[in-house]
Amino acid sequence: MLSKWNPNRRSLLGAAGAGVAAAAMTLGRGPIAAAAPTGSSEGPITQSCSERYVGYREADRAKPYAKYFTPHTDPAPQVVRTAFAGPPLPPASIPDFGRLTRDLGPSGYSPIEIGYGQRPDGVLFVACRTEMPRVTAAMWDWWFGWHSIESARYKLWHPDAHEYAALRENRTTSPIPDKAKYIGNTSYVDELVGPKLQQLGIDFRDPVANGFTVPADQTIIYGRVGSSIAPVDLGWLAHQVRPIPGGAEMRSRFYLNIRGLHVPDLPQAACAVARGASVDPSDLFLGIDLARNLLMHCGQEMNHLAQFLPEIYREFRV
Fold first, then answer.
1. Max Cα separation, the chain?
2. Above 70 in pLDDT, residue 11?
3. How far does Cα 11 stand from its chain's mean position?
4. What does the alpha-carbon distance between residue 310 and residue 288 come to, in Å, rounded to a whole number?
5. Model-level pTM?
6. Which of 57, 127, 195, 206 has most Cβ atoms within 10 angstroms of its Cβ?
């Protein structure tokens, strides 16, 4: 069941401060859990922290998928660029978060498929639709289970903005369905959304258990978005992929400023601090500029990856 809880500013600032302090204490205790793959088929990652970096390094170019690297991210489709250049959606037009399972139903479209805005209750909203020739839902389930174990894979998606990635558990080579490799797992990422660095932990949830209807030829990637440093949740994301003639469409939704608290992953938080954390507590209070920039970011990365996702899927799916 979809839910939202909005703790007050004082409790969020307190949680943020506690999270940063706990991460700093962990840093002082010696080696901590890693954000790089160990080669084990499954389980928590236990190496030293790895770095955040812009672009590709020489070691990345030796990766077997390096032929898919590009210097820059492809532009977003024109319809996204037009919405980005325009004003926010009227607050009263933005659907409530409680409608999400209906808005991303197996068929039909919502009144808003592309746009950004802020509801009267302060919740930020982003909608983005991307057409993807030759792509299938199965390719996206594979991608979400495969790409986050190392930063170079994450950079394939948005080489201009993605700087770091790690998984709580490396399930990439486990003999389990692709969905099971990311559902119930957490992805830790550092990325630019517009000019601002975001350090996030995305906890992927089972969409069916949360009220979505997902036919066999579709998928929904559903996640709770939180800070990777403070034990504070910031909102929700959902990406529906369903077939259209010649390929698939992705219908993305973001609802932010729907906050909550989670049990912190102190080793991951300490690694985030070590990478050079953005620890300004005001980062937990997201504004309309973030929504606008997130619309562009989503339009760019989904369009960019779709250009070669069929090829990389066929080559590297195991």
1. 56
2. no
3. 25
4. 34
5. 0.88
6. 127
